[in-house]
Structures are given as C-alpha cells and as structure tokens.
C-alpha cells in the first residue's frame, strides 16, 4: 500500500482526522515533522519525528535516512505532531529568554561577544543560543522562521495543554509576547526580531561583530540513523 506522510507542523487532531481518510483508502498514514532549522534541512542533517505504525516506519526508513540525520519513531499517528509543537514551544521560550539575557548583559556593560561565549560554554547554553543568537547579534535576524508561525505553534501547544487540563504559566505569557511582536512588526517578520521589543524599550541595539548573517550547518552530512529510546 501507499504511505501518506504529513511533514508540516500541525495539530494532532487534524493529523488523525486526515489519517482516518487515508486508512479508508487503504493507505498508511504517518506524521513526520522535522526539527533543526532550514540550514540543517539543506545539508540533510535535520531531525525527523515519525508517528505511525512500526511497519510503516520501517518501510519509509530508507527515505528518512537520506532526508535526515536523527530519526525518532515517536509512537502512533499524531504523537510526532505533539512532540514537534512541544519542541517548538521550548525553542520559543529560549529565544525570548535569550533576548532578555543579552539585553541585561548589554545594559550591565558586558561585551556581547564575550557574553555569547559565556552562555555557550555554560549550563545556560542551548541549540537556540548557538544558532539564533548569532544572527541576532549579526543584525540580520534571518532564521527562516516568522512571528505568525511561532504564534501558531505555541497556540497549538497551549490547546494541547488545555485539553489535558495542564495549568501552564509560561506558555500564555509567551503567546502574549509573540502576539505583540506580530502586531508590531507583522506576521512575516523573523521571529528572532522579538528582541526588538526590548531594544526599543531600552534604546539599545543587540549587535556584535563577527557573527554570520544566516545560520550555518558545518557538520558533515551522514546517513540518517534511528534514535533508540531508552527503556
């Protein structure tokens, strides 16, 4: 039978609805969103989450091994979509908090190049810092991800939490921050320009020399492998 693979970031309920239609036609549905940024997608080093029957996952694995580097079978249909918006939520939290950290460092008289390295080698480091902080400090803010997409993804994450009665505190505030950024700078503004809110309030620019204008993937392309879950 044929496989239907939904690779966008969307709601698990919609994926399951579409998946049921695929099953009616005799196909095998899977949701397989990717994570890691466009720079890693271009080099074949992207991570892929796959929600599907195990048999469908194994059938599609040769394709995933060409497309990505780390491939995780997350469970049944819809599970990959839940985990994708969860990880996008975390990335957005990191982005907003990095803006606050960098601005506080700037106002405290810290050199931003030194600040970048201090965060990078510390317990406060993250994938978002090592990638997005660079284009923030360059000034291009070009991360190939926009304000409206953050609002969409964090909104889906919030809906999942609400359905399961999880009383979140950070997520509603984050959604408020990015909706404000969306209103100020437009739907298609780079999401990293959320730092402009603080730049304008503090009358300071978060800029430093020596950083690239676009995120770069310097790791060699290798054949993808399945990530084994510890049990």
Task: Describe the structure in your own words.
It is globular and about 60 Å long. The protein is 53% helix and 11% strand. The chain has two domains: 3-81 and 220-226, NAD(P)-binding Rossmann-like Domain (Rossmann fold, 3-Layer(aba) Sandwich); 82-202, N-(1-d-carboxylethyl)-l-norvaline Dehydrogenase, domain 2 (Orthogonal Bundle), CATH 1.10.1040.10. The strands form two sheets. Strands 3-4-5-6 form a four-stranded mixed beta sheet. Strands 1-2 form a two-stranded parallel sheet. Helix 5 packs antiparallel against helix 6 (127-138) and helix 7 packs antiparallel against helix 8 (170-185). The chain has 231 residues and is an alpha/beta fold. The protein contains nine helices and six strands. The model has no long low-confidence stretch (mean pLDDT 96).
Summarize the helices and strands and which ones pair or pack.
Elements: E1 3-6, H1 12-24, E2 28-31, E3 34-35, H2 38-43, E4 46-51, H3 54-67, E5 68-75, H4 79-107, H5 112-120, H6 127-138, H7 147-163, H8 170-185, H9 196-202, E6 225-226
Parallel strand pairs: 1-2, 4-5, 5-6
Antiparallel strand pairs: 3-4
Mind telling me the C-alpha Rg?
Answer: 19 Å
Gap between N and C termini, in Å?
32 Å
Order of helices and strands: EHEEHEHEHHHHHHE
Enter the CATH topology name of the largest domain: N-(1-d-carboxylethyl)-l-norvaline Dehydrogenase, domain 2
- Let me know the largest β-sheet: 4 strands, mixed
Assembly classification: single chain
What class do helices, strands and sheet pairing give? alpha/beta
Total DSSP helices = 9
Total number of domains: 2
Given this structure, which CATH class of the largest domain is correct?
Answer: Mainly Alpha
Number of strands: 6
CATH architecture of the largest domain: Orthogonal Bundle
**CATH H-level homologous superfamily name of the largest domain:** N-(1-d-carboxylethyl)-l-norvaline Dehydrogenase, domain 2
What level of helicity do the residues show? 40-55%
| Average pLDDT | 96
Shape by Cα distribution: globular
Strand content: 5-15%
The order of strands across the largest sheet is: 3-4-5-6
Poorly predicted sequence stretches spanning 5 or more consecutive residues: none
């Amino acid at each position: 039978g044929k496989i239907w693979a939904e690779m966008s970031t969307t709601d698990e309920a919609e994926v399951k609805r579409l998946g049921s239609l695929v099953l009616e036609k005799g196909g095998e549905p899977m949701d397989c969103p990717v994570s890691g940024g466009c720079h890693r997608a271009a080099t074949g080093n992207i991570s892929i989450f796959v929600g599907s029957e195990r048999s469908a996952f194994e059938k599609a694995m040769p394709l995933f091994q060409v497309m990505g580097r780390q491939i995780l079978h997350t469970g049944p249909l819809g599970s990959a979509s839940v985990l994708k918006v969860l990880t996008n939520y975390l990335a957005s939290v990191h982005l907003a908090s990095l803006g606050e950290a960098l601005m506080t460092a700037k106002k405290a008289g810290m050199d931003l190049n030194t600040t970048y390295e201090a965060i990078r080698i510390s317990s406060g480091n993250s994938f978002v810092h090592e990638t997005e902080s660079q284009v923030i400090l360059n000034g291009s803010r070009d991360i190939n991800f926009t304000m409206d997409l953050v609002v969409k993804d964090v909104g889906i994450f919030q809906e999942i939490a609400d359905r399961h009665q999880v009383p979140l505190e950070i997520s509603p505030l984050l959604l408020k921050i990015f909706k404000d950024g969306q209103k100020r700078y437009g739907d298609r503004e780079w999401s990293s320009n959320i730092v402009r809110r603080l730049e304008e309030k503090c009358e300071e620019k978060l800029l430093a020399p020596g950083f690239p204008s676009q995120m770069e993937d310097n790791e060699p392309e290798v054949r993808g492998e399945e990530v084994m879950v510890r049990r």
